[in-house]
TrEMBL record:
Quaternary state and interactors: Homodimer.
Species of provenance: Promicromonospora iranensis
Binding residues for GTP: 12-18, 40-42, 304, 330-332, 412-414
Keywords: Cytoplasm, GTP-binding, Ligase, Magnesium, Metal-binding, Nucleotide-binding, Purine biosynthesis
Cofactor binding mode and count: Binds 1 Mg(2+) ion per subunit.
Matching Gene3D superfamilies: Adenylosuccinate Synthetase, subunit A, domain 1, Adenylosuccinate Synthetase, subunit A, domain 2, Adenylosuccinate Synthetase, subunit A, domain 3
Similarity annotation: Belongs to the adenylosuccinate synthetase family.
A Pfam family hit: Adenylsucc_synt
CDD domains: AdSS (cd03108)
Pathways involved: Purine metabolism; AMP biosynthesis via de novo pathway; AMP from IMP: step 1/2
Protein name listed in UniProt: Adenylosuccinate synthetase
UniProt subcellular location: Cytoplasm
Taxonomy of the source species: Bacteria, Bacillati, Actinomycetota, Actinomycetes, Micrococcales
Record: residues binding IMP: D13, E14, G15, K16, N38, A39, G40, H41, T128, R142, Q223, T238, R302
Length: 430
């Protein structure tokens, strides 16, 4: 049975939660392999809306084993807030597994994140202030705390001391903040140890056994391609590998286990935070997309920046991830427009770019070159087959497929769980 990777193909908020939920009844494990609680998924089931931040979307699918793998950084307080909220709504969360090698977001990581952003001023990155970047920085600097450490108080204290020794100098002498004590950090983290213990395991071994047993494993990315630390619009990116390659390093599963890679992409484009955005709209059409599409962050509540579909980015995401399929979401939001522009290339100081320029300066100055496609007025939320779509909507999808470089295998026509058109089977062993 296949290993399937699901990634965002733009700057995030593409609807990965809905795509994961669509696949949920056909997979045995759903694995979150990167990021933390700095991104959110919204899943609508029977008119009930669930907003998830740290938990894999598969936790809402009965029988599926949700896994937080080693590539994730975990704010334990947030983890239990989400779990308790689901328990209150009758969701069974007992199957959750957490990697013992996953790094922990300590209270001082959140503090460092917030004060650093304020210190940067106009040069700020636009982080969520949740301590994601500082936690990953400690991981790379080899002073991080992992889940396993919670179960050995002596080791945990030593690691906190080592990390705070440097950070307190920074907080006090640079940012004019109070020093954080070892004891307060130790006490906050240890309060979760007993409840965590049954969940924590070597998830890489668990996943290998599942694949060997013929189970289907879905690897779910947090964030998205254009926010990847290596392949995104650096430095306005996240701190982890949000592309398909991150599924391998972030879970401990070898690359030969991956059979297909699904990219989720909106029928238009959005972005949260700072950084270049070639197709961004600043007029009433941008506001229409924002209001009609409900473009406000699941995690932060911030209004998302909106723009037209960018085929250059779609081709880039297809190449970087090796996409085999695309799930196109929110096609319904475009209903009622006479013309729908699509960015087919960039103009950078008079030079045409059909592929994304990796030079930061060039991309910052990129101007979109548009082709206009005919719009449609018909309500498409009831469409359940491609042929049910109006001719102009069909033409729009076919054009995006041709421009994007891989097949569109499912089309979202509304926010509800069943408001989706299957075009091709998303689970297919190679």
């Amino acid at each position: 049975m296949p290993g399937v990777v699901l990634v965002g193909a733009q700057w995030g908020d593409e609807g990965k939660g809905k795509a994961t939920d669509l696949l949920g009844s056909r997979v045995d494990y759903v694995v979150k392999f990167n990021g933390g609680n700095n991104a959110g998924h919204t899943v609508v089931i029977d008119d009930e809306k669930y907003a998830l931040h740290l938990l894999p979307s598969g936790i809402l699918s009965p029988g599926v084993v949700p896994v937080i793998a080693n590539g994730v950084v975990v704010d334990i307080e947030v983890l239990f807030q989400e779990l308790d909220a689901l328990i209150e709504r009758g969701v069974d969360v007992s199957r959750l597994l957490v990697s013992g090698s996953a790094h922990i977001i300590a209270p001082y990581h959140r503090t460092i994140d917030k004060v650093t952003e304020r210190f940067l001023g106009k040069r700020r990155i636009g982080t969520t202030g949740r301590g994601i970047g500082p936690s990953y920085a400690d991981k790379i600097n080899r002073v991080g705390i992992r889940m396993w450490d919670l179960f050995d108080e002596k080791i945990l204290r030593a690691k906190i001391e080592g990390s705070l020794d440097q950070k307190n100098h920074l907080l006090v002498k640079v940012y004019n903040r109070r020093a954080i004590t070892v004891d307060e950090t130790l006490d906050e983290l240890l309060q979760y140890a007993d409840r965590l213990r049954p969940m924590v395991t070597d998830t890489a071994v668990e996943l290998d056994k599942a694949i060997q047993a013929g189970k289907t494993v879905l690897f779910e990315a947090g964030q998205a391609t254009m926010l990847d630390i290596d392949h995104g619009t650096y430095p306005f990116v996240t701190s982890s590998s949000a592309t398909a390659g991150g599924a391998v390093t972030g879970s401990g599963v070898g690359p030969t286990r991956i059979d297909s890679v699904i990219g989720v992409i909106k029928a238009y484009t959005t972005r949260v935070g700072e950084g270049p955005f070639p197709t961004e709209l600043f007029d009433d059409k941008g506001e229409f997309l924002r209001k009609t599409g409900g473009e406000y962050g699941v995690t932060t509540g911030r209004a998302r920046r909106t723009g037209w579909y960018d085929a250059v980015i779609a081709r880039y995401a297809t190449r970087i991830n090796g996409l085999t399929d695309i799930v196109l979401t929110k096609l319904d939001v475009l209903t009622g427009m006479e013309k729908v522009p699509v960015c087919v290339a960039y103009d950078v100081d008079g030079v045409r770019y059909d592929e994304m320029p990796t030079d930061q300066t060039a991309f910052h100055h990129a101007k979109p070159i548009y082709e206009e496609l005919d719009g449609w007025w018909e309500d498409i939320s009831k469409a359940r087959a491609f042929e049910d779509l109006p001719p102009n909507a069909q033409a729009y999808v076919k054009t995006l497929e041709e421009m994007s470089g891989t097949r569109i295998s499912a089309i979202g026509v509304g926010p509800k769980r069943d408001e989706i058109i299957p075009v091709h089977d998303l689970i297919h062993p190679r």
